[in-house]
Write a structure and sequence with these properties.
Elements: H1 6-32, H2 34-43, H3 49-69, H4 73-91, H5 99-125
Helix pairs in contact: 1-3, 2-3, 3-4, 4-5
Length: 138
């Protein structure tokens, strides 16, 4: 089923803008808040935390742009899925933090699982032609 025109194409565009656009925003935030996020990553025992924050910011920006623009969406969605699979259990380990931090970590853990699910959905849809997209690398 191609999403080249009609309501499906418009809804897919809106979904791509929301999903990919917010991922770009989160990635840019990694660059604007690098020190704070690196400190948080260090507190979780992540080696080379600053590099990890910058690298994850790049992944979020490139993955989000790929989805928004329809540029290599399989690579973009796959990269995001790998990111969420790798990062979520280490950074948001709600089961291993003090009780007063558990709810916050669980919220972030569940958010990331939802984003993983959305990344997998985009990965499946990436084989289709998207309306209102550059459709490069489909």
């Amino acid at each position: 089923m191609a999403f080249e025109s009609g309501v499906g194409a418009v809804l897919l565009l809106v979904g791509r803008l929301l999903f990919g656009g917010l991922l770009v925003f989160q990635g840019v935030n990694h660059f604007m808040q690098t020190d704070m996020l690196a400190g948080y990553a260090e507190s979780k025992g992540i080696p080379a935390a600053r590099f990890g924050v910058v690298a994850s910011g790049v992944m979020l920006v490139l993955g989000g742009l790929g989805i928004v623009l329809g540029v290599y969406p399989v690579i973009a969605a796959g990269m995001l899925a790998v990111f969420f699979l790798a990062v979520t259990p280490f950074m948001h380990d709600f089961w291993a933090v003090p009780e007063e931090q558990q709810q916050n970590e669980m919220t972030h853990f569940l958010k990331n699982v939802e984003l993983l699910g959305a990344s997998l959905l985009v990965l499946v849809l990436a084989g289709e032609t998207w309306g209102y997209a550059l459709n490069i690398g489909l």
